[in-house]
Amino acid sequence: MEDMLVRLTSSLIQMENTTPERINYSVEFCADWLQRHGVPVRLWENQGLKMITATIGQVNAGSTLVLNGHLDVVPGHPENFIPRVEGGRLYGRGSYDMLGSVAAMMNLAADLVHQPSNCRIILQLVPDEEKGGELGSGFLVEQGSIGDFVICGEPTNLDIAVQAKGVLQVRVEFSGVAAHGSRPWLGKNAIVAAMQKYNELATLDFMQESSRFFPVPSFNLAKIEGGAALNQVPDRCSLYLDIRYLPTQNPADSRIHSAGCSRCSCGNAPARLTCHYQ
């Protein structure tokens, strides 16, 4: 069993599941693997992304248990997608989050076909957890693929996790006034204004709250775009914020909402902003 899990996980790592095309190929690979092992599979597609559900057991078999795993991984360098075993551990992009769990769930599904349980099992393999899951898990829920209990194979250091933070992803765009770099006082620097606003947002009251399982929310400045030339005062800047709010917090709360949708300014020029919620 261990060798099979290592081989299957290694195959998934090597697929570099970071683009829709590669993710869809991985989904088709998993569908073929499951079918060859006797597992009935249904292939879904939503906005160009494919996903799988595999149902084992009859509708009247009792409670329904959902096993949910995602095939997409975050981007990495080419060497990250070369799996290797060291010290009894398998390394490679996605081995921990969460292709190892996907391989384990696939093997379990193959076993359960021949050893029926006293409940109905639905295996879900989805394509977009790293970007929020709306097109994958969210879509399957809308289609009625739900259960009485869900086990998600996300890494938890072998502890049982019963909560997760929510995600608020925001792009804030700042407009300034361009000028030559030798006369910066004639312009309004959009990057400077953006950084001033970031420091203000990072100290909002909601960032000091805690919950039973999480000491604080997280507030990550994930990406900055701005500036066109070294000898120019930048008149555009975008901040990409990744806010993980607590289960006890509501993203519509004005204190959290202000992290993305407050009015920002660079001189007299207001910022244009786009808020994306998950």
Overall CATH class of the largest domain: Alpha Beta
Q: What is the fold named in CATH at topology level of the largest domain? A: Aminopeptidase
Strand order of the largest sheet: 1-2-6-3-7
Average pLDDT confidence is 88
What is the makeup of the main sheet?
5 strands, mixed
**CATH level 4 superfamily of the largest domain:** Zn peptidases
Q: Supply the CATH architecture of the largest domain.
A: 3-Layer(aba) Sandwich
User: What percent of residues adopt helix (DSSP H or I)?
Assistant: 25-40%
Q: From the helix content, strand content and strand pairing, which structural class follows?
A: alpha+beta
* DSSP strand tally: 15
Number of helices: 6
- What share of residues are in beta strands? 25-35%
Q: Could you say how many structural domains there are in total?
A: 2
Which stretches are low in confidence, meaning pLDDT under 50 for 5 or more residues running? Answer: 262-278
What characteristic shape results from the CA principal axes? Answer: elongated
Spell the H/E element sequence.
Answer: HHEEEEEHEHEEEHEEEHEEE
End-to-end CA span: 37 Å
Protein name: Peptidase dimerisation domain-containing protein
Pfam families: Peptidase_M20 (PF01546)
GO molecular function: acetylornithine deacetylase activity; metal ion binding
InterPro entries: Bact_exopeptidase_dim_dom, Peptidase_M20, Peptidase_M20A
